[in-house]
Amino acid sequence: MGAMWDWITTHWDEEWARFVEGLLLLLVAIVLAGFVRRTARNQLKRTHVDPQVILLVSRMAYLATVLLGIIAFFTRWFGNSALVFGGFGFFALAVSLAFQDILKNFIAGLFLLIERPFRLGDEITVDNHTGIVENIEMRATTLRTSEGEQVITPNSLVYTGTIINRTRYPTRLFTLTAKVPTGVTLDGLVERLKEQIQSRPDIAKDPAPHVGLQPNVDGGLTLEVRYWLDYRRNDPLAVQAAVGQQIYQAIQSTK
After folding, report:
1. Cα distance between residue 248 and residue 239, in whole Å
2. 151 & 232 share domain
3. For 164-187, what is the mean pLDDT?
4. How many CB atoms lie within 10 A of CB 150?
5. Model confidence over 75-116: pLDDT tens digits?
6. Domain containing 147: what range?
């Protein structure tokens, strides 16, 4: 009995020592992973790489370093690399079955960063929500709406759903309408207003702006103005207010 107890305590001490050494390797790997992620971000920012590429590379570098630390921990603990890699295969299968939604969102997030259907800072519409893309995280994509609300949408829903990228192209179509009061002289109204709109330097010349009269159900007329604007260089609200003022003045001048 004494000999058996000596054998158990001796091997238990060895197992405990290997466990502690493996745990130290894992902690070093986690600290190193944070350092690698920060270094990758800083180096890529200096070369003016796309923010999404920076996010993808730094994230993959962090996960790879942590994974190596986990492998080193179990390898040192069990002392058998073949057993560890075989166990990882079984563990990966179990995790994929138990956490299907989390894994699906994680993989979808990686594909969003690789394929880049939109970029950080773009204004998109997904799942009936419109906002500016603030971040593509492990599980979800974060949007900021024009009302100041935060919308968190699962990556799998973003990747498989319909995405409207409202800032993909440099110009966007804007439309203003105004009901024409009774008694307004229509002769030359459309031509004069169109000439004024075309002369504005902030409105795109190609495609050219459109000014026309549309009939109403009640028998009246509506003046419709459509124009393309480089919204990145000009304030859409300010231009919209200025064009609305021109429409009002054009209608008032024909009374």
Report:
1. 14
2. no
3. 86
4. 10
5. 777 766 665 665 666 566 555 555 677 778 888 888 888 888
6. 118-165
The pTM for the full model equals 0.60
Distances (CA, A) of 129 to 24, 144, 163, 214: 46, 10, 10, 31
Contact 250, 189 (CB under 8 A): yes
91 and 126 within one domain: no
pLDDT band at 5 (very low <50, low <70, confident <90, very high): very low
C-alpha to C-alpha distance for 105 and 126, rounded to whole angstroms = 15
Task: Kindly give the interhelix angle for 81-98 and 51-78, rounded to the nearest 10 degrees.
Answer: 130
Enumerate the H helices of the chain as residue ranges. Answer: 2-46, 51-78, 81-98, 100-115, 155-160, 189-198, 236-252
- Total structural domains in the chain? 3
For tokens 């003045």, the residue is: 249
Q: With CA atoms as reference, report the closest residue to 240 among 196, 202, 190.
A: 202
Which structure tokens are listed for 10?
A: 């001796």
pLDDT digits (tens, 9 = 90+) for 26-70: 888 888 888 888 888 888 778 776 777 777 788 888 888 888 888
